[in-house]
UniProtKB/TrEMBL annotation:
Record flagged with keyword Ribosomal protein: no
Record key words, sorted: Cell membrane, Glycoprotein, Membrane, Transmembrane, Transmembrane helix
Species lineage: Eukaryota, Metazoa, Chordata, Craniata, Vertebrata
Similarity section: Belongs to the anoctamin family.
Protein name as annotated: Anoctamin
Organism per entry: Sparus aurata
């Protein structure tokens, strides 16, 4: 009796779901179990697409979309007969009033053994107590999602058998299958308790259990995420130390103290034409002190450290990956050979043309969005400067900057979602041959579009803002009347820091909490309520406790690991490319990733259907991922060198201290970095119409130019060329240091 119970408790390897319209004239089909001995009438020969060489044909070529319910039922019966002929065992539930039917498939041990031999899967010579994974391929015909309303279509799919775990070869195969079912359930529960739980954030991930339950592809992703998060600890600690160093030494910083000194009585030129008034340099005191927190001498050492860290991170992951490949027996795994191309170049030409034209258009859209936000700041600066309130005028620069940064963040978040959908559409137009090729092209397009969208506003502030604004009396205008925006006297680094932190934190908080938690939660519970309402309409005799496969059907489908990689790649770009402007970026990334690991774990265990196991040698199976990391590392050093040289005030301060300072200190740097402008040289209509300042004959502006009393008035001074040469020399020196 015990042996018969073990025979009946078979492991469900795969679930097929189909929709139907309940037939009025026939009785509901009872739940039956077949091991291949029950004959089912066959109307035609069951053939797979693998045999006909058309595995990639779309669903629309398999059957016409307009089929009657009787034709669909006959096709299902024909398909089930093919499964039985292949040796699979079927368990079918009785049809329900909800219009959903489930077929449970069981793959016997002889079938798995045969497929394992065909796949040339290696097993240990000695008997060991650990579990071995057997993976095989089979081509089946299953019911896909509805097409055009409630119509169903048939699609030939290729899926991998779920992991079959065996203890010792001498045991009965049915006993092993029964044991495997229990172990699979225990692994899922164990993952939920020891991995998908915020209470165990201090523990290491059970990578081996993740790999056994989800497969090597997902196991490698979480292993990589764990290594990346672990290696973020040193730069996070060092970044916090750099920030604390700025806090403790800000009171001793001479340039910020000079900026805050009202006794210097430095009058600055207006920020806009006509409506803007002169202003005191001391009004940006808080901005100067905040800028020093991130723009100090320790930042340069931190930038050099981060450049070395980026290179060490990839090398450390390669070593860790080799250890996992050896432990998981992936060293001898061979890549699948692609199927021969069945389409001509003319078939791909249309998709390529659409891809190129669309990408060019999206590049234009991205830069137009950045330019649009810049125009918003320029216009709002003039509009809000008309406010007669002196306090409102004093804070107009900070108000415009803050609202512009928030607007930039919202534009980035919206465009990222749009670009993700467009990347999928463009990849489908290219008609890739395999799923791997589809993922490679998709992740390349996603990275190109999303990185351009995320980094374009930051690149603008770091390298373009204020570079082409001109000078008083000779400004550069947009739309004829609006001046190009300028950086504040303390420099653009503080604005770059705020821009980076807002986009980085906004993406992590909003995307993680809204798109990955809130929206799936609402969708799941709305679906549960809908199913509950449908179940209330069923007859009492059809009600029964929910089966596990019925519960899993309500979960979201697995969409691949490419979106997860893409989210971390963009974050890695923030951490490595612009960390010189925001040393706290690694700390925020570390905090996000500690939560992200458990968030993704809960999503994989409880919110999405269990994906088919996919074997791969490394994350380079989608080879664009490793290529992207190498490209980011190549740009990391140059980006940080240019940020320190051309965005921060580090190089001008060093040039002043060692070339122009009388006593070798920073005393007088603020006066040295500001140029003079005679207000009588304002073009007509550009001088302030009303002013609260009296006795002003000259105003100051941030630049290195000769004063109006020199023969070559308002031309670049010798100090300008000295500083420019020092900036270029620093870029070269920074490159050589690595």
């Amino acid at each position: 009796i015990h042996y018969l119970r073990l025979l009946l408790r078979r492991k469900v390897d795969y679930i097929l779901c189909y929709k139907y319209k309940k037939r009025q004239s026939s009785k509901p089909r009872l739940s039956i179990t077949s091991n291949g001995s029950i004959p089912i009438p066959i109307l035609g020969r069951w053939e797979t697409e693998a045999e006909s060489g058309e595995a990639g044909a779309p669903a629309g070529e398999v059957e016409e979309p307009r089929l009657s319910e009787e034709e669909k039922a006959l096709m299902r019966e024909e398909f089930e007969a093919g499964l039985l002929e292949a040796g699979l065992q079927i368990e079918r539930d009785k049809e329900r009033a909800t219009g959903l039917g489930f077929i449970r498939l069981h793959i016997p041990w002889p079938i798995l053994s045969r497929e394992a031999e065909l796949q040339k899967i290696k097993v240990a010579v000695k008997k060991v107590s650990r579990l071995h994974t057997v993976v095989s391929d089979v081509i089946v015909l299953c019911m896909s999602a509805p097409l055009k309303g409630d119509l169903l279509c048939l699609d030939f799919l290729s899926f991998r058998f779920l992991h079959v775990n065996c203890l010792e070869s001498s045991q009965s195969s049915f006993l092993v299958f029964n044991l495997c079912f229990t172990l699979i359930s225990d692994v899922r529960q164990l993952l939920h308790e020891e991995w998908a739980n915020y209470g165990v954030m201090h523990k290491y991930q059970p990578v081996d259990l993740i790999r056994k339950y989800f497969g090597e592809q997902i196991g490698l992703y979480f292993a990589w995420l764990g290594v990346y998060t672990q290696l973020l600890i040193p730069p996070s600690v060092l970044g916090i130390i750099v920030f604390l160093y700025g806090i403790f030494t800000v009171d001793a910083n001479v340039p910020s103290e000079e900026t805050c000194d009202d006794n210097l009585n430095i009058t600055m030129c207006p920020l806009c034409d006509g409506v803007c008034d002169y202003w005191r340099l001391s009004t940006v005191c808080s901005l100067a002190r905040a800028s020093y927190l991130f723009d100090n001498g320790a930042t340069v050492l931190f930038a050099i450290f981060m450049s070395l860290w980026a290179a060490c991170f990839l090398e450390h992951w390669k070593r860790r990956q080799m250890c996992l490949k050896h432990a998981w027996d992936l060293t001898s795994l061979e890549d699948e050979e692609p199927e021969p191309e069945s389409l001509d170049i003319e078939d791909h030409l249309y998709g390529y043309l659409i891809n190129v034209s669309t990408l060019l258009f999206l590049i234009f859209v991205t830069f137009s969005a950045v330019f649009g936000v810049a125009v918003y700041r320029i216009c709002m600066l003039s509009v809000w400067s008309m406010n007669p309130d002196p306090e409102a005028k004093a804070s107009v620069r900070m108000t415009v900057t803050t609202t512009g940064i928030i607007l930039n963040m919202l534009v980035v978040l919206v465009l990222e979602e749009v670009y993700g959908a467009i990347a999928v559409w463009l990849t489908e137009l290219e008609l890739p041959k395999t799923k791997e090729e589809f993922e490679e092209r998709l992740i390349f397009k996603s990275f190109f579009l999303k990185s351009m969208n995320a980094f374009a506003p930051i690149f603008y502030v770091a390298f373009f803002k204020g570079r082409f604004a001109g000078r008083p009396g000779d400004y550069v205008y947009v739309f004829g009347d609006y001046r190009m925006e300028e950086c504040a006297p303390p420099g653009c680094l503080i604005e770059l820091c705020i821009q980076l932190s807002m986009i980085m934190l906004g993406k992590q908080l909003i995307q993680n909490n809204v798109f990955e938690v809130l929206i799936p939660y609402v969708q799941f519970h709305s679906y549960i309520k809908k199913r509950a309402a449908e179940n209330n309409e069923e007859n009492e005799e059809e009600k029964r406790p929910k089966q596990q496969f019925d519960k899993d059907f309500t979960l979201e489908p697995f969409e691949g690991v490419s979106p997860e990689y893409m989210e971390m790649i963009i974050q890695y770009g923030f951490v490595s490319l612009f960390v010189a402007s925001f040393p706290l970026a690694p700390a925020f990334a570390l905090l996000n990733n500690v939560i992200e690991i458990r968030l993704d774990a809960a999503k994989f265990v409880t919110e999405i259907r269990r994906p088919d196991a996919v074997r791969c040698k490394d994350i380079g199976t989608i080879w664009h991922i490793m290529m992207i990391f190498h490209v980011i590392n190549a740009l990391c050093l140059s980006s940080q060198a240019f940020v320190i040289s051309f965005t921060s005030e580090f190089v001008p301060r060093m040039v002043f201290q060692y070339m122009y300072s009388v006593n070798g200190t920073m005393n007088g740097f603020t006066e040295h970095s500001l140029s003079y402008f005679n207000i009588s040289n304002f073009p007509a209509g550009t001088a302030p119409t009303t002013t609260l300042f009296t006795g002003v004959s000259v105003c100051r502006y941030k630049d290195y130019r000769d004063p109006p009393w020199e023969p070559d008035a308002y031309t670049f001074s010798k100090q300008y060329w000295s500083v420019l040469a020092a900036k270029l020399a620093f870029v070269i020196f920074f490159q050589v240091c690595k």
